[in-house]
Amino acid sequence: AVGLGQALMRVLQFGGMLAAEDQGSQKLQLSYWMNLVDEFFLSSATLKLTLWKDNQLVEAKVFEVGTLSLPQFFLVTSQSGVKSMTLSLNGARERVVGPNHGIVQCISAMWTFRYHNGFTVTLRGPFTAHVI
What is the C-alpha separation between 10 and 82, in angstroms, rounded? Predict the structure, then answer.
């Protein structure tokens, strides 16, 4: 069900799973990420990232990761030393576009990666999720 904030809550639930640091060793197992993707993504889902060179907004590279590759994407991210990922969706809005279909949008989302060595990398940009 969507509407009245349920779609936004589902996205935040996914963000909470990414942020959990108590799942450390499990996050290094492909089965952990397969289960997470099965729980939160449809088989037709795509994670799309647009990364800009040097924040100049002149040269960009678009990456689209399909559902079949998402578990490996998250596993490799964890194996590279990421201990947690945080989604920040300040000002996110939810709208219902059909029965059991909502869209969550945020114009200035942040996806922060915290590494075991103390480094932090933050991706900034618009966020859209279709929640069914």
Answer: 23
